[in-house]
Design goal:
The protein is α/β, with parallel strands linked by helices. Helices cover 39% and strands 16% of the residues. The protein is built from 13 helices and 13 strands. The strands form 3 sheets. Strands 2-8-7-6-5-3-4 form a 7-stranded mixed sheet, sandwiched between helices. Strands 9-10-13-12 form a 4-stranded antiparallel sheet, with helices on one face. Strand 9 and strand 10 form a beta hairpin. Helix 4 runs parallel beside helix 10 and helix 5 packs parallel to helix 6. The structure holds 4'-deoxy-4'-aminopyridoxal-5'-phosphate. The site of 4'-deoxy-4'-aminopyridoxal-5'-phosphate (PMP) has 13 residues, from helix 5.
């Protein structure tokens, strides 16, 4: 272990859950509903599925390396948002982009700022390159952008923001974002992680891509894993100035996005009807869960994502375990410093009902 860099020695490995079919067999369950990873309950965009089927009909291509520049996907993204190809960096999921950003801008002696309860990959990426993470206390479980501005020092190189944030679902306003940006020195990179951006239906909400012309130090990251339903294929993208994107692309592994992921993402990104359907399902499911948790006497953090962080008003781990035995997988968030909360992803109406009934049984057993 001593051979590993200090930052790596201090990392706790990611603890993946068991495969669903394995768990189902182990617990002798007839059905398992997984509401644990903020995936799209509709699966992939049908346009993506059709493109994948077409690709599999020409399997020889799969023996070749992918297009290392991701030209066609970048073109589709550029067309959709009216940005230049040079502004885009593709990632093996948006997690890959967070890692690339850390590798480009951070090293030993540098500081990166993020919020308490923010997405767990920020500290991982920061520590892995030997930099120091500065975790700023949250305000009402969300990012305290004023406190984050105050945490900037001469060592600060990167600020990570998640809007909406995972696991809390909290968000910040465009005005608060501008107030922060006016206090950030031009050489400090601001990463605006919009993994859940497509779920925000409010037209007045902050849209990172619309801010790129205004802030040369801004990188917006997005993913195909959530609203587009391509979590298993691993595709995300970053948009920034051509200069910043050029830096990210220097470090990016040339074949970081595989051919099937490129093909599926190119088709999915144009499938606005699917995103609308996803958003409508999410809005309805969110109302279903809010009503159900209220009826069970539980409160939730307000969320604009495709998940809810529910306060179980007790230690959440035993409730998580009891739900597992009922065939419902949710996400305990004790590792985030939220030992009494469970993060529950919004499913289909039927999956939600299954999980709500299980939760009601579990809670009654405990009362
Ligand atoms: N950012 C946030 C806030 C997330 O919740 C996630 C997914 N859990 C990601 C980034 C990364 O998503 P992916 O790598 O699947 O694109």
């Amino acid at each position: 272990i001593k051979q590993a860099r200090l930052g790596v020695q201090g990392l706790a490995p990611y603890q993946p859950g068991k495969p669903v079919d394995e768990l189902q067999r182990e617990l002798g369950l007839t059905r398992v509903v997984k509401l644990a990873s903020n995936e799209n309950p509709l699966g992939p965009s049908p346009k993506a599925l059709a493109a994948l089927q077409l690709a599999l009909a020409n399997p020889l291509e799969l023996g070749r390396y992918p297009d290392g520049s991701g030209f066609r996907l970048k073109q589709a993204i550029a067309n959709k948002f009216g940005c230049a190809l040079e502004a885009i960096t593709l990632g093996n999921g948006s997690n890959d982009l967070l890692d690339i950003i850390a590798r480009v801008f951070l090293g030993e002696g540098d500081e990166a700022i993020y919020s308490q309860y923010a997405f767990a990959v920020y500290p991982l990426s920061v520590q892995a390159v030997g930099a120091t993470g500065v975790c700023v206390p949250a305000r009402d479980y969300g990012h305290d952008l004023v406190a984050m501005a105050e945490a900037i020092t001469t060592k600060t190189k990167v600020i990570f923001l998640a809007n909406p944030n995972n696991p809390t679902g909290t968000w910040f306003s465009e005005a608060d974002f501008h107030a922060l940006m006016t206090r950030v020195p031009a050489h400090v990179i601001v990463v605006l992680d919009e993994a859940y951006g497509e779920f925000v239906s409010d037209a007045s909400a902050l849209n990172g891509l619309a801010q790129l012309g205004r802030y040369a130090n801004l990188i917006v990251t997005r993913t195909l894993a959530k609203a587009y339903g391509l979590a298993s294929l691993r595709v995300g993208y970053g948009v920034a100035s051509a200069e910043l994107s050029g830096l990210l692309n220097r470090v990016r592994q040339p074949f970081n996005v595989n051919s099937l992921a490129l093909i599926a993402a190119e088709a999915a990104i144009t499938d606005e009807a699917f995103v609308q359907q996803t958003r409508a399902l999410n809005d309805a499911g969110m109302s279903q869960w809010l009503a159900a948790t209220q009826a069970l006497g539980l409160s939730c953090l307000p969320s604009r994502g495709n998940f809810l962080c529910v306060d179980m008003a007790a230690e959440a781990m035993p409730i998580f375990q009891a739900l597992l035995r009922e065939g419902v997988i949710v996400r305990p968030v004790g590792a985030y410093g939220l030992p009494n909360h469970l993060r529950i992803s919004i499913g289909t109406e039927e999956e939600n009902s299954f999980a709500i009934n299980a939760l009601a049984r579990v809670l009654n057993q405990q009362v």
